[in-house]
Amino acid sequence: MSLAARLSAWFQSPTRLFLTVALWLVSLAIWRPLAVPDEGRYTDVARWMLRSGDWIIPRLNGLPFLHKPVLYYWIEAASIALLGPNVLSARVASLGAALLICGAVYAVVRRLSDAHSARWSVLLLASCPIMVLGSQYANLDMLVAAWITVTVSLAALACHAEPQQARWLWWGAYASAGLGVLSKGLIGLVLPGAVFVLWALLEGQPRRLWQSLSLVGALLLAAITLPWFWLAEQHVPGLLHFFLVVQQFERYTEAGFNNAWGPWFYPLVMAIGLLPWSLIGWPAARSAWQASPTSPHRNLSLNRLGVAWLLVVLVFFSIPRSKLVGYILPLVPAAAVLLGPWVARWRFRRHAALGGALLCAVLVGIAAKTQNNGATSLASALKTQIALSDVVVFWNRYDYAVPVVLDRPTPVLVVDPWGRSSRALPDNWRRELVEGQEFEPASGRSLITPSQWVQQMQAPGAPTYWIWVDQALAKSEPLLQNRPIVQRAGSVVVLKVAP
């Protein structure tokens, strides 16, 4: 028996299929250190939640960090508690979310097409760069993409199920939408809802909109989402306005945030991120268009679902000017739903899968090799020398992963000429910290000016300071000149100031 035949036989079992995919994703996820800023930021928020015991308010350097809801941090904090602080525990939420996406896609394609197509939809997901890289990136994008995928899949399955089973599937869809809201906000409900509405209209089945309404489902959604929002608002008044208005609507509609790109951005991201499968997108679409409705293995309902899913996600995220690659992850399952059945009967599918897997491994290796982690590597090198009583200082910078590596129990000092309100600051680390200070001024003592640092340093019993600073600034800033450089990495140096 050939290798290809043996692999085909191995993947006939769903258990072996998903076990292989899980081992594949985990093995790639442990290659590289935390990427900055995102992985360092979200991992430190989760680490702080675990260390502080405050499971209600996410915090960055001890300050409220209210950009996103809390579910991701709960998962990551729990994984850190179980596995310790390391790159694998930091990525457990994203890895689990990727497997959840694969499971949901497998279920809906198997139900609306066949098991062979479902297996190849999963293998397509496991061998395209955007899915593999997203699964090993410690941020919230993969988690919300998973709940959106589960919600859409359960809704589709409910429409093709017996009434008794459909009721449970609808309840599950509402619950997963609630978990999506608790992961990243309103898109967890809005996107799958819009996909379902468009799919029902494309199917010529508007009555499905009424069939989808469920009082029990709505109560489940409310029970999952409302308690945290209510508790968080009690702890930090103004959180709901900041989260819903500033972080949801203003970030979507205004142009003052980072990463402004045109409407061409996401089509290009998908063309590259879905390699090698994007190369067959056109012939697959043409084949599906030309086939008759009675062709074997052609399911118009599945195709319409994939088209509705793709259009809603692509249009929704192309409207705002602020765009990040991870935002488009909910579109990847739609591509698998559309391409999987065609790939399952393409003669070169095994070659493409192996080529895609090799491309993913190469890209992960390149990322690990070229990742700029100068400040983080300094933390690793100096960790044993920095006592708990010493004070870590960031001067005109904030290195998100450094507190994670040092596992600091207290906030680091951040020296900068503070004074402007968060609204007057650009969308960067300064704005994040000042927003937290504005919500909770008593926790903002870690944000100090250079003159305040001098006063602290000259006070009786002052501790030893370890200062992360750009090398050029260390030479030009009078307060730092002639301070001994302990270690350097790239453009970053660490100074030690002892009493």
Description:
A hairpin with a 2-residue loop joins strand 1 and strand 2 (63-64). The chain has 499 residues and is of the alpha/beta class. The protein has a six-stranded mixed beta sheet. It has 24 helices and eight strands. The mean pLDDT is 90. The chain has helices at 3-10, 14-29, 38-52, 71-83, 87-90, 92-112, 115-126, 129-135, 141-159, 163-184, 187-202, 207-211, 215-235, 239-253, 265-273, 281-290, 300-318, 331-343, 349-370, 374-382, 401-406, 429-439, 450-458, 471-476, and strands at 59-60, 63-64, 391-395, 413-415, 447-448, 465-470, 485-489, 492-497. It starts with a helix and ends with a strand. Helix 6 (92-112) runs parallel beside helix 9 and helix 16 crosses helix 18 (331-343).
